[in-house]
Structure formats: structure tokens, C-alpha cells
Amino acid sequence: MTNTTEKPKKRQLTVQMDEDLYESFKRVAAANDRKMGLLVRDFAKQYVLKNGQGELFPK
């Protein structure tokens, strides 16, 4: 039996930031038991929901 469910395509984003900001972000994320990439994805989703094309994400 074949699985017909397709996984959404993923894209990679490279972000440059000041080293101090990076280290602070890393430290705060770890202190809150969160991964940096997940926090960036959460921010991107919230930004899209607030500023347009919110229909891309079901509530």
C-alpha cells in the first residue's frame, strides 16, 4: 500500500546577525528549553498571520 500523503516542501533560511545577539538568543532559547530554529519559524508564522496571507495557516 502506498502512502499518498505528501509532506510539505521545506526551505532553508540563512540569517546573519551580530554575534552578541546570536549568543544572547541561543542562551535565552536554551534557558526556555526551545530550539532557535523553532522560535524563528514561530516568529515567521505570527508575522505572516498579523501582516497578511494568514490564510496559509489554519487556526
UniProtKB/TrEMBL annotation:
<dbReference type="GO" id="GO:0006355">
    <property type="term" value="P:regulation of DNA-templated transcription"/>
</dbReference>
<dbReference type="InterPro" id="IPR010985">
    <property type="entry name" value="Ribbon_hlx_hlx"/>
</dbReference>
<protein>
    <recommendedName>
        <fullName>Ribbon-helix-helix protein CopG domain-containing protein</fullName>
    </recommendedName>
</protein>
<dbReference type="InterPro" id="IPR013321">
    <property type="entry name" value="Arc_rbn_hlx_hlx"/>
</dbReference>
